[in-house]
Write a structure and sequence with these properties.
Two copies of one chain form a homodimer.
Chain A lengths: L1 E7 L7 H16 L2 E7 L5 H12 L5 H25 L4 E4 L7 E3 L6 E4 L3 H7 L4 E5 L2 E3 L5 E3 L4 H13 L3 E5 L4 E2 L11 E2 L1 E3 H9 L7 H10 L3 E5 L7 E4 L12 E5 L2 E8 L4 H13 L7 E6 L2 E9 L3 H14 L4 E5 L2 E7 L9 H11 L4 E7 L2 E7 L3 H11 L3
Parallel strand pairs in A: 1-2, 1-9, 2-6, 3-6, 9-13, 12-14
Antiparallel strand pairs in A: 4-5, 7-8, 10-11, 13-14, 15-20, 16-18, 16-19, 17-18, 20-22, 21-22
EC number (chains A, B): 2.7.2.4
Function (chains A, B): Catalyzes the phosphorylation of the beta-carboxyl group of aspartic acid with ATP to yield 4-phospho-L-aspartate, which is involved in the branched biosynthetic pathway leading to the biosynthesis of amino acids threonine, isoleucine and methionine.
Organism (chains A, B): Staphylococcus debuckii
C-alpha cells in the first residue's frame, strides 16, 4: 500500500476549522488507498504563548524544562487531529515524538534526530490508516524530552519519510518555492521542480521556505519532497534528485538574506589560543558561522565573520566572556549588511556566472564587500539598503 | 537525608504567583535539609478547558487521544514550577509521569498504577534537591499515555511516597479532614488525626476530601498521609495507622453522599444469565456498584443497587444494551435519595451504635430505606430532602 508523509505547520492548524478541513482531505486520500503519516506543529501561536509565559517567570529558563513545556503544543495538536479523524470514521492514532520512536542527541532545544525505528509504524498501521505524529520533538538518551530547534517539524517529517521510504509533502502558507522572494521582487516565478542541492543552497543562503537540515536529510535518503500551500489546488514545488531534472539553467534562484549579523574582532597579537577559544565557544553555543575572513599582519589579527541575527544574545555572551581572558580584545557587531546569492546547479557546467553577476552589480552602482562561492552558488555581501535593487538587477540579468 | 512527597492540586497552582509562592516554600524546606518530590496537577481550569475544546470537536473522543491531550496540562505545570525553582537557585528537575517511571494498567482514562521504580529517584536526587512530577498520568504496556482518573494526582503522590518510603503531604483548598462536611453542618470539628480505615470509609461514603484509592494505597504501604491547606499555618489532619492513634471514639465522623443514583431492575424470570451479563458490563465499564439488594419471588427478580451519579451515561448505555437482549427488562433510575453514614473505628469495640442511630433518625421523623454496615461504619439511604437535618441529628446524638 502506498505510504506518504504529510506535514502541516502551525499556521495550517491554527484553529479547529482548519484542522477539520485537513482531516477531511486526509480521509479522501485514505479512501484512495493510501496509508498516511501526518506530522503537525503546535496550533498557531501556541509556542509563542508558552514562550511569553516563560519570559514572565525567568530570564534564563532551564533548557530541559523549556523543551518539556514546548512539546505540549504539538502533543495537543496530534490529540485533536486524531480525535477528529476517528470521529469522521478514519482509524487514526496520535503519537508524541518519543512514541514514534524519535531518538535525539545534543542540546535540549536544538537536538538532532539520531534514530527512528520503522517497525513502530508497520505495527501501528496494522490497525490504523493515519498516524498523527507530533513534530519538532524527540527523546534523548537520558529519557528527557527534546525539541529539534528551528524548522524542527519539517525535519521530523523528512526523517519519518526516510524511515518509511516514502515521499514527504510539506504544507505551509506559501504556494511553493520561488526563484526569489516574491515580497522582494513581485514578478518572481514559482518553480515546479528544483534539485536538493539548489534548495539547500537557497535555504542556507536565506531563502527560508525550508530549513537546510530537512532538505539535506531528504537528499541523503533520496526522499522526494513537495512544498505547497495547505488545502490549495495550486501546484507547489517538488524538490528531488538532480538527475531527475532534465533542463538545467545556469541560475535557478536569487536569495536575499537580511537576517545576518557581521562580527569583527581585533587583537594586537596573532594568538591561536584566542581563535581556538572563540571557535570552541561558538561550537558549544551552537552558533553557526557563515563567511569568515582573517587578516594577520604586524598590527595583530583581524577576523570577520557573519552569523544569523537570532544568535545575537549568544554571540554577545561569548565575546564578553572572551574579553575577560583577553583584555586587549576589541570587537564590533554590525547588522547593516545583507547577503545576496545566486543559486543554480547549472553553474557547474556553465562558466561566466560570477563575472556576469559582478558586472551587473558594478553597472547598477552596488558595491560589495565580501564574496564567497560554492559549487552551485555565488554570494555577495552588500549594503542592506541595496538589497532589493540587487535582487531585481540579477533576476533580470540572468533571465530567471 | 529526609525525603518527603508533597502534592499540590489544581487550585493551588492556578496562577504563576501561587506557583512562585510554593517554590519559595519548597526552597525553605530544602534549606532545612530535605529532599522533596513534588507532585502537581494541571493549573486551575486547564483540564476543564481542554475538555471543552474536545466537546466542541466530537461527542465520543477516542480515549487514548483524550488521555494524551489531558496529560499536557500537568506537563506544563511541572515545567513552570521547575523553571521557577531553578531560577531561585534550587536544583530541580521536571518529570512527566512516564519519566518518573509510573507504569499503568487498565482503561486509558481510569488507569491504575502497576509499578514504580524507586531507583529513578535515587539517581535524579544525585544532582537535584527537588523532583517535580506530573500527577494524574502514566504510561501503559503499549507505550501509550494514560491518566489515572478521578483524584489521580493524589494517587500519584501516595504511590511515589510508597516507592520512596516517605510521608506524603497533600495540599489542597481545605484545612483538613472534618468530622462532617462544614458546608452541611457549620459547627463540624477538624480532626487532627484519623486512621486510614476511618478515612477510607469516609471517602467511600462520600466525604470526598480524598479518593479512597489513595488512602487505601497509603494504608497498604503504611505511608503517613497529611491533608492541609496550601501555604497555610493552620494545622491539617494526619491520616495514619490505627495503632498509632491512642484515644478512640465510637464515631469519628458523619458523611453525607449526595452523589448517588439508585438503579432498580425488574425482570419476570429469575435469570442468572441476565445478572451475569449485567455485572460483566458493569465491570467492563468500570462502574462501581455500592449497596445491592435482590428479591427473587414468583414475580421474577427485582434488583436494586446504588452507583455514583457521574456514571449516569455509562449505566444508561449498559441498560439500553441489555434491553436489546432481554426485551422484558424494566429499569428505573432515581436520584432522589442520599446516603448518610457514621464512621468510627471505635465501633468495633463499642456496641449500640446502630440502635442509637436508628432511634435518633426515628425520633427526628426521618425514614430510611436501606441500611448497610461495615466493621467501622453504618449507612442509611434516606430521602435527599432530609440529608442536612440527619447530619445535624446524628452529629449531636454521638457528641462528635
Amino acid at each position: 500500500m502506498k505510504r506518504s508523509v504529510l506535514k502541516f505547520g502551525g499556521s495550517s492548524v491554527s484553529d479547529f476549522t482548519k484542522i477539520k478541513n485537513i482531516a477531511e482531505m486526509l480521509k479522501d486520500r485514505i479512501e484512495n488507498g493510501e496509508q498516511l503519516i501526518v506530522v503537525v506543529s503546535a496550533m498557531g501561536k501556541t509556542t509563542d504563548q508558552l514562550m511569553e509565559n516563560v519570559a514572565a517567570l525567568t530570564a534564563e529558563p532551564k533548557q530541559q524544562e523549556l523543551a518539556l513545556l514546548l512539546t505540549t503544543g504539538e502533543q495537543q495538536t496530534v490529540s485533536y487531529l486524531s480525535m477528529i479523524l476517528n470521529d469522521i470514521g478514519v482509524n487514526a492514532k496520535a503519537m508524541t515524538g518519543y512514541q514514534a520512536g524519535i531518538k535525539t542527541v545534543g542540546h535540549h532545544l536544538k537536538s538532532r534526530i539520531a534514530e527512528i525505528n520503522p517497525e513502530t509504524f508497520d505495527k501501528a498501521f496494522e490497525t490504523n490508516d493515519v498516524l498523527v505524529v507530533a513534530g519538532f520533538q524527540g527523546i534523548n538518551e537520558e529519557f528527557e524530552l527534546t525539541t529539534l530547534g528551528r524548522g524542527g517539524s519539517d525535519t521530523t517529517a523528512v526523517a519519518l519519510a526516510a524511515a518509511n521510504q516514502t515521499p514527504c509533502e510539506i504544507y505551509t502558507d506559501v504556494d511553493g518555492v520561488y526563484a526569489t522572494d516574491p515580497r522582494v521582487y513581485k514578478d518572481a516565478k514559482r518553480l515546479s521542480i528544483v534539485s536538493y542541492e539548489e534548495m539547500m543552497e537557497m535555504s542556507a543562503l536565506g531563502a527560508g521556505v525550508l530549513e537546510t537540515r530537512s532538505v539535506e536529510l531528504a537528499n541523503n535518503y533520496n526522499i522526494p519532497l513537495y512544498l505547497g500551500r495547505t488545502l490549495s489546488n495550486v501546484k507547489g514545488t517538488w524538490i528531488m534528485s538532480q538527475t531527475e531534472i532534465l533542463e538545467k539553467k545556469a541560475v535557478t534562484g536569487v536569495a536575499l538574506d537580511t537576517h545576518m549579523m557581521h562580527v569583527t574582532i581585533s587583537y594586537p597579537l596573532s594568538d591561536n589560543q584566542l581563535l581556538t577559544a572563540l571557535f570552541t565557544e561558538l561550537e558549544e553555543g551552537q552558533v553557526n558561522v557563515d563567511m569568515i575572513s582573517q587578516i594577520v599582519n604586524l598590527d595583530g589579527l583581524q577576523l570577520s565573520f557573519s552569523i544569523k541575527d537570532t544568535d545575537l544574545t549568544q554571540i554577545k555572551g561569548i565575546l564578553e566572556k572572551l574579553s575577560e581572558s583577553y583584555k586587549a580584545l576589541d570587537y564590533n557587531l554590525n547588522d547593516e549588511y545583507v547577503k545576496i546569492s545566486l543559486i543554480g546547479s547549472g553553474m557547474r557546467d556553465m562558466s561566466g556566472v560570477a563575472s556576469k553577476a559582478f558586472i551587473s552589480l558594478i553597472n547598477a552602482g552596488i558595491p560589495f564587500y565580501q564574496t564567497t562561492t560554492s559549487e552551485i552558488s555565488i554570494s555577495y555581501v552588500i549594503d542592506a539598503k541595496n538589497g532589493e535593487r540587487a535582487v531585481e538587477e540579477l533576476y533580470q540579468a540572468f533571465d530567471i
